[in-house]
Amino acid sequence: MKKIGVLTSGGDAPGMNAAIRAVTRTALYKGMEVVGIRRGYNGLINGDVFDMNVRSVSSIIQRGGTLLFTARCPEFKTEEGLQKAVKACKEMGIEGLAVIGGDGSYRGAGDLSARGIPCIGIPGTIDNDISSTDFTIGYDTAMNTVMELVDKLRDTSHSHDRCSVVEVMGRHAGYIAVNTAVACGATEVLCPEMNYNLDEICDKMLKTRMLGKQNFIIIVAEGIGGSSEIAKYIQEKTGIEARATILGHVQRGGSPTVRDRVLASQMGHYAVELLEKGIGNRVIGVRGNQLVDYDIHEALKMTKPFEEDLYRLSDVISI
Ligand code: ADP
Ligand code: F6P
Fold it and tell me: Which residue in the list 12, 103, 111, 127 is annotated as catalytic?
């Protein structure tokens, strides 16, 4: 391939910039041309693109968000939208695409690959809810952000002998919730993958209070939601003052961690190695310490186990 495009799609995630940088620099190193496409598949359909050089990606490795902006593009789900994108690629001489995003973006990349534009998917989402990879770009940073914020909440919660009910992101998945619960010493974690009983949680709080525990952290995954109601219930049932905090979009920002920067750099580099060989319709993942790639449609059928051992461990060590 002589010319490739790169875009970010769906929700942004810290480390996307590092991935864009790696795609761009690797392609230029290999003598290819690179086009940056703005606002996901929208930019492809509307021709909102620009030529990239080695300096286009200077000083972005440390920045959260995405230099290319991101968006959701409903039109891309239609045949008409896809045909517009194919036409735009042909007109601009774009022979392949690196698509940084989540499962939805992978579906679009699969559709475009099937229409003759080879695409490689790179997993970028804070939720870690992509089955074809152990880790997604942005997940580690988001968890570290949650940890920092929950540590701050613990300070005030401790001073007031309170319970902090903290709602964290993750869409339908509880990976952020269970890992940050362990990292922050939460008393309980509520996530969509596991059943819970609020009365049992209240009993546990009262028992541990008898053993001298003064403050409590309860992590609630957004897939469960209702953190304000949960806090109210806990307060009524236990008499322990409870406050709810929904961390929200702050979890999507910030400078990426070492892990996310390295992962994004490796994946961006690998994506171009595949495109260089004319390979498309694949997504990149990491298994153990090894980079892997899968057929997009196979990847979309995969399931990811929940970390039940971690969930149980959290319960044991939070007494
Ligand atoms: P994510 O990639 O983070 O999962 P979305 O699910 O919002 O985010 O998908 C991002 C974009 O991918 C959508 O706005 C759309 O342009 C494209 N997309 C999603 N699903 C499909 C699909 N079934 N077919 C084609 N394109 C899709
Ligand atoms: O996928 C990332 C994510 O932040 C989820 O955790 C959350 O459910 C969703 O995106 C929020 O989307 P929006 O930015 O459209 O509010």
Answer: 127
Q: What is the CA radius of gyration of the chain?
A: 22
Whether residue 102 has its Cβ less than 6 Å from ligand 1: yes
DSSP-derived secondary structure for 168-216: E--TT--HHHHHHHHHHT-SEEE-TTS---HHHHHHHHHHHHHTT---E
Angstrom distance (rounded) from CA 224 to CA 220: 7
Q: CA-CA distance, 314 to 304, in Å (whole number)?
A: 20
In the chain, the amino acid numbered 316 is V
Q: Residues, the chain, total?
A: 319
Which residue, 146, 175, 138, is CA-closest to 255?
Answer: 138
Pocket perturbation via mutation, ligand 2, pick of 169, 222, 247 by most ligand atoms within 8 A of CB? 169
- What pLDDT, on the 0 to 100 scale, is given for residue 102? 96
Structure tokens of 306?
């929940």
Q: Tell me: the pLDDT tens digits for 156-183?
A: 999 999 999 999 999 999 999 999 999 9
The verdict on whether 140 is a catalytic residue reads: no
Using 50 as the pLDDT threshold, list the residues of the chain that sit under it: none
Distance 19 CA to ligand 2 centre (A): 20
Question: Mind listing the pLDDT tens digit for each residue in 186-219?
Answer: 999 999 999 999 999 999 999 999 999 999 999 9
Beta strand pairing status for 3-8 and 33-37? parallel
pTM: 0.97
Q: Whose CA is nearest to atom 9 of ligand 1?
A: 104
297 lines ligand 1 (CB under 6 A): no
Domains of the chain: 3-138+256-301 (3.40.50.450), 140-252 (3.40.50.460)
- pLDDT given at position 319: 84
Residue 82's pLDDT is what?
98
What does the pLDDT read at residue 89? 97
- Tokens in use for 148? 């920092």
Q: Whose CA is nearest to atom 15 of ligand 1?
A: 73
